[in-house]
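Researcher: Next sequence.
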Amino acid sequence: MSTNKAIKPRFYHALIPVVFLALALGYTQYYAKQPPHFILFASGMVAAAVAVLWLKQKWSDLQDGMINSIKMSLEPIIILIVVAMVIATWIISGIVPAMIFYGLKVLSPGIFLPAAMIMCAVVSMASGSSWTTAATIGIALMAIGYGLGIPQPITAGAVISGGYMGDKLSPFSETTNLAPAMAGSKLIEHIRHMMYTTLPAFAIAVVLFIIIGTKYSGNHLSVDNINSVLGVLQDKFIISPFLLAVPAIVLYMVIKKFPAIPGLFIGAVLGGLVAVFVQKTPISVILTCLQSGYKSNSGNVVVDSLMSRGGIESMLPTVALILCAIAFGGIMEKSGMLSVLANGILKVAKSTGQLIAATVITPLLVNIFAGDQYIAIIISGRMYKDAYVKRGLHPKNLSRTLEDSGTLSSPLIPWNSCGAFMIATLGLTPWTYVPYCFLNWLCPIIAIIYGFTGFSIAPLNETEETGRKIISEPEVVEDMEVEPAA
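Model: Next structure:
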């Protein structure tokens, strides 16, 4: 490796791995119909080649950046594995079948989609986690929607929209705390300010799901099919409302801020105990299910497709995808090429509206090229913090926009850690669900509209309702920078 002084990357340097990734992904996804794992990792190696051979950077430094980025993703990866255990034991124990059984009895196609979105929003706001929401009631809602004849991508759109609405406004959410920390605002003022974009987006999304739901009401409902599903569930499992105590316990632990990993693991263990004592399932069968998932062979196509899921092995491709994406993002960040790309966008932002639009675009690009919402929020927050101060804009404008784009675009990208999680957990095909994640699309659009109209754009010296001046001097903002946790 060269020992010459490193060269600062320019915009055209950063474009080389980005263009390679775009072209290679386009061929792989749309023509070869192959997973993007290799292309993401190869793009990281292209970025490393540019950095080492052209910019005279050291491979050891790039490797450290890659490894440090992967370290940030280890918690989500472990959660993924534990969620696979939860899905497996909750199916074999009859918990998920019970949720499906009672859901099919109570919900109708006409109200299902808006009801699913609202339910997910409530659970996510209480728990602070869209992932927990998807891994608990989300998987049951997907099955209920399937039984009601509603396409899986549409149901997924309702689950993800609701889950991320609650996650975004919950004070317990990691991203809700991270965004104001990066921007220099306060948690409560950040949440209040987000309501200007989130509540209208949520209301519009509910109306859209109500309109879509009318298409699947009336004659589109097959009572015979639903009765057939209910009959098979009763034949294969002991169905009782007491089974719902397990997910209730898990959600209670999460609401009480019990750590997610041990909380979900306890849920998996409780599911295994219910399988032993209620369903009379041998322990050896449960262990097999934990490893390779539950395999349903009832003969009913609907039930078999819904129940054949879970197991640690089912999450391994997703884990590999996240690692490849994060490796690419870590090299791009450490080499400075990610910042160069974002700074190139900032140069064209001459007005407040353009600055807000640039703040929407940048986390989206980081989510695409770095594969992680935390990296998207951290990098974008650091980049634009001074720009907002110079324009006399309150930092809560920045923190709100970081969430409108960085948090909400993450589940839309299949190789992003959030997108990979949702696809694996809800059993989705990449991209098919994206058009129906209405809230995730609407919030960034509304944020840009506000930027150009000036609506709800707070000035730097704005005084809160308490009469306390939050920030009066730009220098105060400079001192508020918070370094992210390793």
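Model: The chain has 23 helices and no strands. The two ends are 28 Å apart (CA to CA).
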